[in-house]
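SAMPLE LOG
Freezer: B-3
Tube label: C17
Construct: single chain, 119 aa
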Amino acid sequence: MGKGSRKSSSHELKSVATAGYSGTPLPKKLGIRENYSVVLINAPVRFERKLEPLPDGAEIGTEADSANVAVVFATSQAYLVRDFGPLAKGEFGLGEGWVDYKVCAIDETWSGLCFARRR
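STRUCTURE (predicted):
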């Protein structure tokens, strides 16, 4: 490694302007719309910066109770399905009014399982 360079931690998100290979901006890909609140679960370090700019009136919240969208992060889609998929049917998911609607690539390392409030 060159002078002044450092290894990124395994929990740090690589710099990307768009999600995965689609070229779609992350807020749109994750279902974040105007005036929405999103809660991030197990998000990579400083992930919030990757969502800028958020749609007008959208915000990152800390409580799932008041959020429109929740995103659970893992380093592989298999891990999401195996370890977090049951959330869709359990205490965080349908039982609490949430529906899982998408597993998406965030970058080369991270995937996200997206939940939205049931209508």
